[in-house]
Amino acid sequence: MTDSARSTAGSSTAHKMMSGVLLLSMARWLVRTFGLVSTVVLARILTPEDFGLVAVATAYMGLLESFSGLPVTAALLNEGPQASALYPTAFSLQVIRGGLLAMLGLLGALAVPWLLDDPRLPLLFLVTAIQPLLAGFHNPRFSEMDRALDYRAETIRQVVGRAAAFVVTIVIALAHPTYWALIAGLLTSAAFTSASSYYLIPWRPRFGLQGWRRIVGFSGWVVGANMMRSVSER
User: Fold this and answer.
1) For residues 117 and 153, what is the distance between their CA atoms, to the nearest angstrom?
2) Which residue in 40, 97, 129, 214 is a FRET match for 87, CA 20 to 30 A apart?
3) Contact assessment for residue 70 and residue 226, using Cβ atoms and an 8 Å cutoff
4) Rounded to the nearest 5 degrees, what angle is found at the Cα of 81, between the Cα atoms of 5 and 220?
5) Taking the chain, what is the end-to-end CA distance rounded to the nearest angstrom?
6) Which residues make Cβ contacts (< 8 Å) with residue 112, sequence separation at least 6?
7) What is the dihedral of CA 29, 151, 196, 124, to 10 degrees?
8) What is the band of 234 on the pLDDT scale with cuts at 50, 70, 90?
9) In a 10 Å sphere around its CB, with 0-12 CB exposed, 13-18 middle and 19+ buried, how is residue 121 labelled?
10) Contact, 104 vs 72, CB < 8 A?
11) Is the pLDDT of residue 40 over 60?
12) Residue 228 pLDDT more than 90?
């Protein structure tokens, strides 16, 4: 490769990286704006107790997710152009992880609410446990966009999911002002985020675990680091 070609390739990569940073920053600010507006509106409709109940349930599920993080996208990026053969495996591992987290959420519905002595928490834990299962159906083909430094689809996916959650939360809160409006928003965000990933980058979901060792083997150290960080932070 000549010096001119290297310079052109470097400029192209730098341009893609800068565009990607700008797009992701825009998506982050839009998501935060939706969150801020939603909080301001809901603060006038719901009670602090409603927010507290949802915080207990989401904190429990968040802790479980942080302990079981499986960086599938990073593993697919590590595979390079041959990653497409691992898409069924990546999809299956994501769904299995989501299902296991949902089961742990169900166990939490039996144990944690009893410890906290609040009769409203068991059903709240049961419904909140659906969220990681919905998120597990994310399209593994999105790793191609990361490899190409093209974050347009990711920007749309994030904004659409948050916008849908915003609308559902506000509408339900106005019609039935309880903490269930917040839970409905969480589930809507997870469902729309996963569903839109297939609309933006078409792929037919398939199950398979033929290459699970390659993904799990790559992810092992990352999972361990995430677990240690979660312990220190939480």
Assistant:
1) 44
2) 129
3) no
4) 120
5) 50
6) 56, 60, 121, 125
7) -50
8) low
9) buried
10) no
11) yes
12) no
Note the pLDDT of residue 9: 46
Q: Count how many residues are written for the chain.
A: 234
Residue entry with tokens 């998506």: 27
Strands (DSSP E) found in 85-208: none
Whether 5 shows a pLDDT value over 60: the answer reads no
As given in the structure block, the two tokens for residue 116 are 């906290």
**Side chain identity at residue 6, one-letter code:** R
Q: What confidence score (pLDDT) does residue 187 get?
A: 93
Tens of pLDDT, residue by residue over 136-194, are: 898 888 888 777 777 788 888 888 889 999 999 999 999 989 999 999 999 999 999 99
Q: Give every CB contact of residue 130 below 8 A, 6+ residues apart in sequence.
A: 102, 187
Q: What does the block give as tokens for 4? A: 């001119």
Token digits of residue 213: 């060792």
Q: What is the CA radius of gyration of the chain?
A: 20
